[in-house]
Amino acid sequence: MNPIVALFRSSLGKKYIMAVSGAALILFVIGHLLGNLQVFLGPDALNKYAAFLKASPEVLWGARSGLLLMVGLHLVSAALLLRENSDARQAAYAKKDLVAASLASRTMIASGIILFSFIVFHLLHYTALQIDPSFAEMRDAHGRHDVYRMVISGFSRWWVSGFYVLSMALLCLHLSHGASAMFQSLGLKNDRNRGFIDAAAKTLGLVLFIGYASIPLAVLFKVVK
After folding, report:
1. So where are the chain's domains?
2. DSSP 3-state assignment of 89?
3. Is 184 exposed, middle or buried (0-12, 13-18, 19+ CB in 10 A)?
4. 98, 130, 216 from 71: Cα distances, Å
5. Which of 12, 31, 130, 167 has its CA 20 to 30 Å from the CA of residue 210?
6. Strand, helix or coil at 8?
7. Cα–Cα distance measured from residue 67 to residue 46, given in angstroms and rounded to the nearest whole number
8. Max CA pair span of the chain
């Protein structure tokens, strides 16, 4: 039997898949932020970075394929666990869960829908260049795709920046809960380190939110232009 299929047959296996795929997605979110923050270094730095990715299709498409796989595994395992919990619901457990659940855990479904909508929009906007086709024609002095000017132009629209900041807030709220739950699923969380892990997860979520939100806000307030 395929080992992935075998894991999906048990609750513990699904939790492992969700935890490992979640860890991979967290690493992507961190790496993606580090790349995006190069906008503060100026046009040359960001455009050089973008040109490198475009000139290395094995890196770019390898990352995209891996990301797509991790998203798929994460969503499927989450949906199966949600159905499993719903089928096995007990009054005592439900009461305990309601008291203990954080804002992040109680808004997982709603935030997930908004995040999915944002991802589709974001890909159409900055990757497929379908929202504003003029982005495809932007070139810098070196003939490279002018990603810097594209970012400035896109985030100069208040509603684009607003949707981005809201989505990043939901993503980081989701991440702050998920990062902590990941250690629980992997059996690495106990009474001694629970407080530290929970605090570290919330701190990571906050730092990532500040990093991501700083880009559209810097454009709106013309810190970068």
Report:
1. 3-220
2. coil
3. middle
4. 27, 23, 25
5. 130
6. helix
7. 22
8. 66
pLDDT at 87 over 80: no
Average pLDDT for 170-176: 87
* Cβ neighbours of 145 (radius 10 Å): 18
Residue spans of alpha helices (H) in the chain: 3-8, 11-36, 43-55, 57-87, 91-100, 103-106, 108-122, 147-155, 158-185, 194-220
pLDDT in tens, 42-75: 999 999 999 998 888 787 788 878 888 888 888 8
- For residues 165 and 171, give the distance between their C-alpha atoms in angstroms, rounded to a whole number: 10
The SS3 of residue 139 is strand
**Structure tokens belonging to residue 167:** 């989505």
The pTM of the full predicted model, rounded to 2 decimals, is 0.84
3-220: in CATH 1.10.390: no
Q: Please give the Cα distance from 179 to 211 (Å, whole number).
A: 18
Burial group, residue 109, by CB count within 10 angstroms (0-12, 13-18, 19+): exposed
Alpha carbon of residue 102 to chain centroid: 19
DSSP assignment letter at 145: B
Question: What is the rounded distance in angstroms from the CA atom of residue 44 to the CA atom of residue 118?
Answer: 28
User: Phi and psi (nearest 5°) for 139?
Assistant: -135, 145
pLDDT, tens digit, 9 for 90 and up, residues 101-156: 555 556 666 666 777 788 888 888 887 778 888 888 899 999 999 999 999 999 99
Per the structure block, which two tokens stand in for 32? 């993606």
**Cα 218 to Cα 40: distance, rounded to the nearest angstrom:** 9
DSSP label at residue 130: -
